Amino acid sequence: MKKLFLIVGMIFLFISSVLADESLDPCHYSTEGTDFWIGFMQNRSNHPNHYLEITVTSRFGSDFTLTYGPNEIPIGGNYSVEANKSIIVPIDFNLLESMGSETPENKGIHLVSKTNPVNVYALNYRTQSSDVAVIYPTESLGKEYFAMCYTPRRTSTNESNSEFLIVASEDNTTVSVTPSINTDQGKSANVPFIVQLNKGQSYQVQSMNNVVAGQGDLTGSFVSANKPIAFFSGSKATTIPNSGYTNFSYDHLFEQMPPTSTWGKEFYVVPLKQKVKDTYRVLAAEDGTNVTIEGLNRTITINKGKFFEFELTSSQASRVISTKRVLLAQYCRSQRADGNTGVGDPFMIVLSPVVQKVSDVTFVAYKSAKVENIFYVNIITLTSEVGNILLDGSGISSYFAAFPNSRYSYAQVATNAGPHRLYNPNEDGGFLAYMYGFGDFGDTESYGYGVGYNLDIQLDIEGDIKDDTLVICKGDIHELDAGNYFNSYEWSTGKTGSTIMVSEEGWYTVTASTLLGCKKSDRVYVKVNDPQMDLGEDTGSCYPGEIVLDAGPEFETYLWQDGTTNRTFTVLETGDYTVTGINKRGCKASDIVHVTVFDPVFSQNYEVASELHPDISFFNETERAVSFLWDFGDGEKSTEENPVHHYKAIGEYKVVLQATSDFICIDTISSWVKIIPFTLATPNAFRPDSDIPENKVFLPITLGINPEKYKLRIFNRLGSTVFETNNPETGWDGKMRNGTLSEPGVFVWIVQYSDVQGFGHQQKGTVMLVR
Predict the structure, then answer these.
(1) How many CB atoms neighbour CB 697 within 10 A?
(2) 646 strand-pairing partners
(3) What percentage of the chain's residues is helix, strand, coil (to nearest 5)?
(4) Whole-structure pTM value
(5) SS3 string of 582-644?
(6) Of 282, 355, 364, 392, which Cα lies nearest the Cα of 28?
(7) Cα–Cα distance between 432 and 355 in angstroms, integer?
(8) pLDDT, tens digit, 9 for 90 and up, residues 313-364
(9) Burial class of residue 649 (count of CB atoms within 10 Å of its CB; 0-12, 13-18, 19+)
């Protein structure tokens, strides 16, 4: 952001809803405390007006000290802040602004309040590239973080890198870093590396500086440690969005990231007043996180370390809900992204889940040389609490509008420069609020920040935030995960780990505790989704295409037995038809139905038969037929289902079956039967040297035999075989098997064969060979 000459414009003076005995709640953390670790990421260079500031406020007044590095080198002396006032401590950016990438530096700043809790804010100012971070007290730090940055608008310089910064709060801190893209010093994307830090040391990681193409987005980088660390992320400078318009400008993004243990599942987003659109990013800590953006009527699935970027217009105040904890950021877009009449320039606000509400906060709308008259505060509260919200002692209920289909409402209230108090006398009601200001007369200045929120430890089992319901498919086994922040877990099932496996419908409750005594409970109702597919009973039709199977509207996708994917299927032939549907929950259901397309079918044992065996059997194969009329083509008929008919004469006959179905379909089908003569005749003599061809060989005359099953053998008077063949068209020419001529005389023949119907026959006799 191009913002502010004094940090006081970015602070709130006290959070009066934080009671003096709040430390008794070991689950409660906020932005107020007595011990802080601060780090400044690298801002754009090459400008003389560049400085750092730390601002401290206190509800009660306090003395504090500032030191830096492992040796706690003092910054100035002792400082004091009066009750409900603020004090600014200037910091030399040449001394304590982080520089470069992947080198441990002794630039961690330690603030210790000696008497009362304070709130701390850090400003990194460079003309037309500034930002402020709300600093979390050491007790609110965690051990697991993800970076939220923004995609750089690539330039020929190294001014547009994304970056993040780690500050160690204790000695012997082991940090595991998994960058989402390649880093400036050659660390590979998605490959963890280890960094060892002592108290007061810092470690900055940037995307590549020396290659334009390497100026990438470190969003989703995962950082974990064995001891609490302060974690900051953002960009050296960037535009928002990173493309699509001209006359762009770059702003430094600088936010302290909350640990994953404080992320939430229900958020309400309010457009920035006077902006055409706002940009948002939602980042997941776990695989399979389903996020619903109600303003877009869209649900997307995000895996661990991945984000989804979206835009909402000025009329799209929206709820964002998720099945698992997420981090949500709102970005003010560059001025020219809204056209020549736009206001403001990039800043980033990490939005708080609705469970982090506060009930009393005093904040300042800062007036600077360029931000003088345009100030707004966005407020979110329960609709039932709208009448209780007071701004500077006055009711503002008329400013509120309800979120669609929600029990929450929001307001965008214009205000003026100076201090303001936002208050809800109902401590259980609470609110979330965000202050922002824009430059006048087209000046590209702006700022925005959350005016107060809690960082209470969250325990959330996966489920639909609307009704604490998790839907699983029947037959599936699903893991319920309570997260790994707590030290002990007790489930309603008796299990004691952080996860349990469930497959049955019902309520599941977990109670989790930390070593410091924080105890939280959550529950989820597991609903078993068992979709049913019903194609109906087995049925039939008279004609192809008459029946169209409908799998029903309850499913998102369909898959039929032939691979088609329509909801309906037109039946053209008899068969089994199967379909599998998948509903919006991802649950499957299948069904199968047998459809008979009425089509008379029959078979017969012989299409060709000899006059010796003229009985033909007919077999009806028509499905769902109830009556039959056979016409055998010889003037005779039958109503039997499977008749046997005796043909009395040689000839060819057309057989017709007329069948009637149980659903009153009538159709016919026909076939042919041929009755042929049966003959095997043999001559009683032959002469190989005859002038008549038929007399030159001994060849039986055959009709109605199967040529594949035929064997002729000739024997002499001694019983020796002199000739044999399996070919009914090959006769004996009077020669021996060795090719010599047989002596004239009487020979015995035997013929073995089958007729066309497969009946076996054998005949024998004698023949005289004449020479």
Answers:
(1) 16
(2) 615
(3) 5, 50, 45
(4) 0.68
(5) ECCCCCEEEEEEEEEECCCCEEECCCEEECCCCEEEEEECCCCEEEEEEECCCCCEECCCCCE
(6) 355
(7) 9
(8) 999 999 999 988 999 999 998 887 877 566 778 889 999 999 888 888 777 7
(9) exposed
